[in-house]
Amino acid sequence: MGKRWKLAWVLGLAVLGACGDSDPTDATGTPADGSGGKADDVDDVVLGGPLLFDAACEPGSTLTIAAVGDVLLHSPLQRQAYDADDGFISLWSDVADLIASADVSYANLEGPTARGVNSGGRDVPDPGKVFDGTVYASYPMFNYHPSLTNDLVESGIDVVSTSNNHSLDRRALGADRTIEALESAGLPFTGTRRSDGTGAWHTYTEEGGFRLAWIGCTYGTNGIPDNEGQVRHCYDDEDEILEQIATLKSEPGVDAVLVTPHWGTEYTHNPADRDIRLAHAFIDAGAVAVIGAHPHVLQPWERYVTDDGREGFVVYSLGNFVSNQSQLARRSTILLYLGLKRLGSGEVVPYGARYVPMVLDRSNGRHLVAIDREGGFGSERSHITGLFGEWGVAPAVQDPDMAPQCDPDWTPPHPADGWIGGACADVGDDACGGVECDASLPGGMCTQACERTCPDQSGRPGTLCVDLGSSGPQCVIKCSGPTDCRTGYVCETRSRPDGSGASTVCVPG
User: Fold this and answer.
1) With 70 as the cut, is the pLDDT of residue 10 above it?
2) Could you name the CATH architecture of 48-396?
3) What angle do CA 265, 166, 96 make, to 5 degrees?
4) Are 364 and 338 contacting, i.e. CB atoms less than 8 angstroms apart?
């Protein structure tokens, strides 16, 4: 049975696929990490687009989780951090307030934080906060100064996964020293344990009256033998993980179980069949959410409903949080917000999922920024919304509404927003993704002057150059019916100014 699942949002992945990277990357070839395998339960899976949960407008106490992808620190990022007064926080200080404002915040810690350990796993003199290429190094054998753990805590991160293909880059001793650093910083972690066999595979967070259990796992460790059994493996240990999920779900005081798998094929936006199957198995076993990592690019999200009617949330990859990978897809990322709600029955369920589009700005050092707060980065924003949809975009503010559709006065965003055809406020509006705002049109419209052709972007409606009278020839979006157009616009047949290329488009009316 082939892969026949569908994307609910038009992705245009032909122009978004992986390509060569001039920077050092995390590429290790394509191991048997979820790229193959067929599953018999992935037909008609709907990925991307708006996620509408049954409990969105139900009464109940709520908790908001913020989640980010890979903390993957290539040499330029480490050098910047070691030179900066605020250390690693200098990489993401522009969005730290958005992370910290959530009740619980999660990150994927990709690489050891092992003081005084070389790539052979031997104890050596520690050089301090310096990128020496021996103790603290980059691709292919990462290791970061343990001050990273304190900087994550100071930035509002409450829990991390340590189970990934770089978990053993400093061998058994490095995994032990990483645990020491995390425990010293008071940062809960999941997915690895000590070489003497002590420690649990899972961890807990407690906030706002919710006790959450977290389980991390990885597809492998880049061929480095796990001689001491320190790393939890998603596929090799699948039966044990499913049993652990069920046990934790029934544990007194645990409100919800979340799984954070490290899986998938690098630089591809499509989750593999076996990743979809495993995600569903995790939810079936009792997990409320699955938050994936490893591909270094974004992969869509999904609302999954079990046979007994429970709703679960899956995001297959959050891409890179911070890295030195330069391609558009690898520098584009999101801050995910997931809302959990305790119903009157006591059951905790997802009730909303939204995201903040972000990008690693490389124009002056490396700084992660929220696109809608910074302005610009129209191509990166369009790439992100093409995968997740405009509907789920959260404003780049603290404590965004997780279920805005419950407000009868709320107007959902149009798929064109942020590009040609979208709404805007004034000529200087940054919400147009690099084109202009014509405030004289109803509700303001993002457009640009044209003679015959207009640019298209993947994930957006197609465009056409038409004459808008007093505004002259302008780019507008194509439509198939009146519901495709924003308020103040009608779907009419128009041609280009030279009379060619007739199509139905949204024009003021």
Assistant:
1) no
2) 4-Layer Sandwich (3.60)
3) 90
4) no
